[in-house]
Amino acid sequence: MSTTGGDGYFQSQQNAIATSDQLEVEDTARRLLQRPALQQVRGKLAYLWREVLAYPAREQMAEFEPMLDEYLFHHALRAATGDRKRPRIVRFMAPPHRWFGRDVPGSRWAGDSPDFIYRLISIAPGGRYEIRVRPTCERPPTVNYALMSDNSAAPTILGLLDSLAMTREQNGEAVITMDDSAADGRANHLQNRPGAYQIWVRDAIGDWEAQSANALTIRQLDSRPAQSASDDELEQLAVRHATDGSYYAYYCMRSTTALAPNAITSPVSSGPMGGMATQQTCRVNLRLADDEAMIITTTHAGALFRNAVLQNVFMLSFDYWSRTSSLNMTQMAADADGRFTYVVAHQDPGVHNWLDTGGRRQTIFGQRWQAFAARSGAEAPAATARLVKWQDIDAVLPPGVHRIDAGGRRQQLARRAAGFERRFIDDSRRENP
């Protein structure tokens, strides 16, 4: 029996993400990036993607190399976590940051959400595990645990566990079991299936200032070889996944930018794209001239988690720690009629729900609805969009849209920055300022 957890595992009293697993895997992934095979793959992908993106993404090619860096580190992390002889829990899909005295590259990829804390849990097909979930805040976030296949070319969910359907102990903790048998009445159970590779965990943080990711530990219940994979083995795994995944990543980049400009799609399940089947999304390929804006209005639809996000043409979030380039259900303000109206614009329209393009003439808009409340009568997810001239915004906004002044905007941005910093709390900073 091997165990992840115990004394010294959590490296911070305030941040459950800061674990010995996290730091070790980050160091391994950074080491893998320097290996010749990964550098060779980077050169190959740079050539292939430039061939097909240089013209469509011409206005944002300054962001191409940073995107490529994040893509490589994303797959280096997945490989470093993918040692099936040793289950570990590691955050990925985060922007570049510094903690514990180390600069950690970004690892965002294919439509990341600014509100999710994404984590990987490495497992082996047929393995038996126990995952303990401990809340770290008064109102824990909703969470999805998705059993993913070993298929980088087309991500496939083999099983999904939603925290809304989980049974908890009196103190709020929960235990998730996993083996190759069906649940047969067992609560909080994921069935391990052939081809299973990792569990992807998404903590949906609605309140950046008050909510935090659950503390997770994993215990392996069956015996496995004690020897871990070598860097040579992990390098080859990273090469395979980065190469195979390049086609899916390209599809994600072009799936929205290839749509007709400024037309919103109907909300649909994310399942066919490799996302969560319990989540619904809509999209817009936004192309705004300097004197244009887009007004988007959405419904609540009984979803406990919702967010509206802008991404660049490479389908990566941008500057959400310093701009309102995303808004979740806690950060957005409702209209007087209970709907939610956003203004996507290059400059501040004086509306609370401003989605800031950061000056990009083309962006990808996406709205998520998930964690639907178990009640009848809720309206279906819906969204409308209207392209307007900047000077006409006030005249065409729906009645009852929440306004904001310059002081309110400064407070809004200050709260975003403070909430974002909580994700990278590093207790060692207090000792080594």
Account of the 3D structure:
The protein has 433 residues and is of the alpha+beta class. Helix content is 23%, strand content 28%. The protein has seven helices and 21 strands. The strands form five sheets. The chain has a five-stranded mixed beta sheet, with no helix packed on it. Strands 2-5-11-7-8 form a five-stranded antiparallel beta sheet. The protein has a five-stranded antiparallel beta sheet with strand order 13-14-20-16-17, with no helix packed on it. β7 (142-149) and β8 form a beta hairpin. It is globular. The relative contact order is 0.15.
Distance between the termini: 40 Å
* Fraction of helical residues: 10-25%
Beta-strand percentage?
Answer: 25-35%
Shape: globular
Largest sheet: 5 strands, mixed
- The helix count comes to 7
Regions with little confidence, pLDDT below 50 for 5+ residues: 1-5
Give the C-alpha Rg.
Answer: 22 Å
Mean pLDDT over the residues:
92
**Elements, N to C (H/E):** EHHHEEEEEEEEEEEHEEEEEEEEEHHH
